[in-house]
Amino acid sequence: MIKKGDTVEEAGLTTPESLDLQKFLYDMKEKNLPYCTMEVSSSGLELNRVSAVEYDIAVVNNIARDHIDLHGSFENYFSAKKQLVANLQPGKIAILNVDCPQTRKLINFTNARVITYSVKGNDAMVQVSDMDLSTGKGYFKLNVTEPLPTLHNHRIQAQSMTIQLSVLGLHNVYNATSAAITGLVLNETPETIKQELLNFGGVERRFQLIYNQEYKIIDDHFANSGNISVTLETLRYMDYKNLKILYAIRGGRGTTVNSENAKAIVEWAEKLNLREIFVTSSVECVGKYDEVSESEQQVTFSILEEAGLKIHYFETLEKAIKEVITELSTGDVLLLAGCQGMDHGARIALHYIYNNLSTTEQAIRGREILAPLKNRVAGMVQ
Question: What pLDDT, on a 0 to 100 scale, did the predictor assign at position 160?
């Protein structure tokens, strides 16, 4: 989506084509908008969609193995990603998460002023402490441990602020930390930063809590092994009775990505006391570019089975969701996990819950149950 003041339009690509991007930026300038925030993808960098853009601030939260099909190797992918900070002019700002080993390396590839941050106690200019994710929603203290550089001559002095989020997930603690640092660099007050972060309602399909009554249902976009690890680590901090995971195999991405995704699930299975997993190919929901191949299914199954996980497999997403929901009890958490194959998951799950209520219960609870679908984009067109 491209938001220009009060207008919103579909982007089509994460990072628009170069001519489209320049038109969007021109329109923003004409509207006298002071800032533009954009997601710069590795493909956008490699295909020179942003080669004419000069950034004041670049934020890199993590670099995980993704889009290997496009770049050919992780080395090529890293080379594309590092362009974002390598092209920064002296005096500009690079904000880097040093908990990610690959992102830490970027310190050596930029002439910009670097601000480092850590959520896990690594040596950094900004650190997180007293983190509480027991409900899934982040609550933590952000500590500026030394004066920070800005785009101008003044410096941000050492300070602390307590931040409370309305969204779930360890990844949102990282996102909020980098956003808070960006706000400080842009001379926003701590009070404004704290309030805006509390007001943030989250991003669709990013550890999104879509049902929170007798049990919880969380919808998450399992894109790559890095995303999966952060998502499952969040669950480790949360309080719940039993965990159920419904995983949609990532079709059309090859065996490398799918084996890495399965290994990331296995890595956390024992830590989360996970003994079984529900798996689907979502055959009725995906287009031809996202269909799960036999080799992708086989590599996923072999890794999960070798780790001792019992697999409940369903070709269709609808059948899988109905089966896993029937096994939920009070206090449980269900994670709907997957990329394109799980886009329709929230719609199917919430309609299934709604349709199994009595007419009286539908009248009482129905609007609340279906509320997360009101402005939803993913999976709403079948």
Answer: 97
> Virtual CA dihedral for 55, 60, 65, 68, nearest 10 degrees?
0
The whole-number pLDDT of residue 67 equals 59
Q: CA 333 to CA 258: how far, in whole Å?
A: 24
Q: Where in the chain is the domain with CATH 3.90.190.20?
A: 208-373
Beta-carbon contacts of 20 under 8 Å, excluding residues fewer than 6 positions away, are none
Domain 54-199 has CATH 3.30.70.100: no
- In the chain, list all ranges with CATH 3.40.1190.10: 54-199
Retrieve residue 258's tokens.
């799918």
Q: Please give the sequence-ordered ranges of beta strands (E in DSSP) within the chain, or none if there are none.
A: 2-4, 7-9, 57-60, 93-97, 113-118, 126-132, 137-144, 159-168, 208-212, 216-220, 243-248, 276-280, 310-314, 333-337
208-373 maps to CATH 3.40.50.620: no
Alpha carbon distance 266, 228 (integer Å): 11
- 368 strand-pairing partners: none
CA-to-CA dists, residue 19 to 64, 336, 381, angstroms: 29, 37, 29
DSSP E strands, 318-382: 333-337
Residues of the chain with pLDDT under 70: 10-12, 65-69, 382
CA angle centred on 81, ends 76 and 84, rounded to 5°: 140
pTM, two decimals, is 0.80
The strand pairing partners of 312, in sequence order, are: 278
Determine the Cα–Cα distance for residues 111 and 113; give it in Å rounded to an integer.
Answer: 7
Q: Which of 174, 245, 164, 165 is nearest to 202 (CA)?
A: 165
pLDDT of residue 65: 66
Residues in the chain: 382
Q: Which residues pair with 168 in a beta bridge?
A: 137
119: which DSSP letter?
A: S
* Main-chain phi, psi angles of 268, to 5 degrees: -95, -10
